TrEMBL record, chain A:
Belongs to the ABC transporter superfamily. One of its GO terms (molecular function) is ATP binding. InterPro entries: AAA+_ATPase, ABC_transporter-like_ATP-bd, ABC_transporter-like_CS, ABC_transporter_ATP-binding, P-loop_NTPase. Keywords: ATP-binding, Nucleotide-binding, Transport. This is ABC transporter ATP-binding protein. Coiled coil: none annotated.
Automatic annotation (TrEMBL), chain B:
It comes from the Bacteria. The chain crosses the membrane at residues 15-34, 69-92, 122-149, 161-182, 189-213, 233-258. Keywords: Membrane, Transmembrane, Transmembrane helix. The keyword Transmembrane applies. Pfam families: ABC2_membrane_2. This is ABC transporter permease subunit. GO terms for cellular component: plasma membrane. The keyword Membrane applies. GO terms for molecular function: ABC-type transporter activity.
Length: 294, 265
């Protein structure tokens, strides 16, 4: 079952910000990465899904229901962590979490305690006095306390130290095992790489790519680095799928996408001193999408 | 209900400060009467000698300030202004603060409709108005009663004045609500709402001074509760109906506008 369906979602503001004709689906039980640089339209998309802003055209459906029409109903099962965490300043952490829980018709006291312990969050502090990282923790607990079926995270890790980030990811994996679907927006690719099943890459409001993480990492691209004994003829690797060709200091490097036999046949014709074949990290792939689109 | 409760709790302190201010204004203002009452009619004569414009500005034109209730009528203009400031700022602030403090992203991600959010805020605002008005009422009756002569009833005219004040409060609260709800500039909503209120106050003064633009009286809620008139003959039905109609229109605009527009985050 599709938990999130975006159909030609378009949101234009007066200026250049916004999203254009965005369509993708997130299936139940997925951890879905939503990546793009700052200002690409990630938050705009999320805010449209939450009904904070209205689409110019197209639609967003969650749990099969329209986001605008059935907003309050679907939001019962959504946990949301905004990118910037601002909460009523003169409240204590405990008060805020209870206030947050009071919107859901279930008892969340146990969950609040357990989550706060897990994230080492002091419930008695005033929110005003908290550091950025601790505010983020309040946001995390606030987003998870009602055991939502869909968790939407907008740049969730900024401000968290590595240990807490680790713990937060474990928490997310547990929620996912429990059955929750997770939409994880980020511009930090390594974290998406570790958690997500699929990713959508968005740039300047448009969907650049939508791929399975496994395919993106394993099947699609390889980074080749060769150290030939002699010169490599300029046209030796002029086949489709080779990109970012570089030749310097007697080394040749490039990205390759396609049939692996094709490329090994070419390499076999060379007299090599050394050779490396690497999985490119997502960053590289991402930059690749970037450059292509520019 | 949680939203309503939260709203009441959040503004408890400011409401308390307003109430202290009310008591100080009423007691302090009427305190001056004690000294003046001794000079008897001479004060009335002095006031009558003032140019018509100044009389209008001070609101003493048609009031007998040698009586406690007449004197209170002069003071009432300032109390009314105080109530208007409170109501117009409250109406705009109670709604726009969520966007200004960026808490709307938290609040509207919860399973509540915008109508419900607005209804809860409106109810909280109305309760504030009523508490404000009750404090004004009680302190006025108590303080003015101190100066009243034996057998002179001040409770009835004060009751009428307070109902008038409530009407004015309601209009300005609704106007503030409309500015914050339908307008696209939550950061400036309070300033705009207060600005509109001050404009209608200036209009009210202009109406008093000129004496020839009476048809504009309906545009300024301050005229709905003109002390001299209300003490003399009670609230005008036309003003009450106009006030309620304007408030209803403002609230309608607030609900429809807020339902349709993008929340600023």
């Amino acid at each position: 079952m599709a938990v999130i369906e975006l159909n030609g979602l378009t949101k234009t503001y007066g200026g250049a910000r916004g999203v254009t004709d965005l369509s993708f689906t997130v299936e139940e039980g997925e951890i879905f990465g939503f990546i793009g640089p700052n200002g690409a339209g990630k938050s705009t998309t999320i805010r449209t899904m939450l009904g904070l802003i209205y689409p110019t055209s197209g639609s967003a459906r969650i749990f099969g229901k329209d986001c605008i029409e059935h907003g309050p109903e679907i939001k019962k099962e959504i946990g949301y962590l905004p990118s910037e965490v601002f909460y009523y300043d003169n409240m204590r952490v405990k008060d805020l979490l209870n206030y947050s829980a009071s919107f859901y018709k279930k008892d969340c006291a146990g969950r609040i305690k357990a989550l706060a312990e897990r994230m080492e969050l002091d419930l008695t502090k005033k929110i005003d006095d908290l550091s950025l990282g601790n505010k983020k923790k309040v946001g995390i607990v606030q987003g998870l306390l009602h055991s939502p079926k869909l968790i939407i995270l907008d740049e969730p890790t900024s401000g968290l130290d590595p240990l807490m980030q680790q713990r937060f990811f474990e928490l997310l994996e547990e929620e996912n095992k429990r059955g929750a679907t997770i939409l994880f927006s980020s511009h930090i690719l390594s974290e998406v790489q570790r958690l997500c099943n699929r990713v959508a890459i968005i740039k300047e409001g448009r969907l650049m790519a939508l791929e399975k993480m496994s395919e993106l990492k394993e099947n699609t691209y390889k980074r080749f680095k060769l150290q030939p004994a002699g010169q490599v003829a300029p046209g030796a690797f002029a086949i489709p799928g080779v990109t970012e060709w570089k030749q310097e200091d007697g080394e040749v490097s490039f990205l390759y996408k396609g049939n692996i036999n094709e490329i090994t046949r070419r390499i076999a014709e060379l007299d090599l001193r050394n050779m490396w074949v690497e999985e490119p990290d997502l960053e590289e792939i991402f930059m690749h999408y970037y450059v292509k689109g520019a | 209900m949680n939203l309503f409760r939260r709203e009441m709790k959040a503004s408890r302190k400011s409401l308390l400060i307003w109430i202290v201010g009310i008591i100080a204004m009423v007691a302090g203002g009427m305190g001056k009467y004690a000294g003046m009452a001794e000079s008897g009619d001479s004060m009335n004569e002095l006031m009558a000698d003032l140019p018509k414009t100044l009389q209008a500005v001070f609101g003493v034109a048609d009031l007998d300030i040698s009586t406690p209730i007449g004197y209170y009528g002069v003071l009432f203009l300032y109390l009314l202004l105080m109530a208007a400031v409170h109501a117009s700022m409250l109406g705009a602030n109670i709604l726009s603060k969520e966007e200004r403090d960026k808490t709307s992203e938290f609040l509207l991600a919860k399973p509540i409709s915008r109508d419900r959010l607005l209804t809860a805020k409106l109810l909280a605002g109305l309760v504030h108005l009523i508490v404000f008005n009750a404090a004004m009422w009680a302190s006025s009756v108590l303080v003015v009663g101190q100066y009243a002569a034996e057998g002179e009833s001040v409770a009835a005219p004060i009751a009428e004045l307070m109902l008038g004040m409530l009407l004015v409060q309601f209009v300005f609260l609704s106007a503030g609500f409309a500015v914050a709800g339908a307008g696209g500039r939550p950061k400036r909503a309070v300033a705009i709402s207060a600005g509109v209120m001050l404009l209608t106050f200036l209009l009210s003064v202009a109406v008093e001074v000129s004496g020839s633009i009476d048809f504009l009286r309906f545009l300024s809620p301050f005229q709905y509760a003109d002390a001299a008139e209300v003490i003399e003959s009670g609230l005008g039905l036309g003003f009450v109906l106009t006030g309620v109609a304007i408030a209803a229109l403002c609230l309608f605009a607030a609900f429809v506008g807020y339902r349709r527009r993008d929340i600023q985050v």
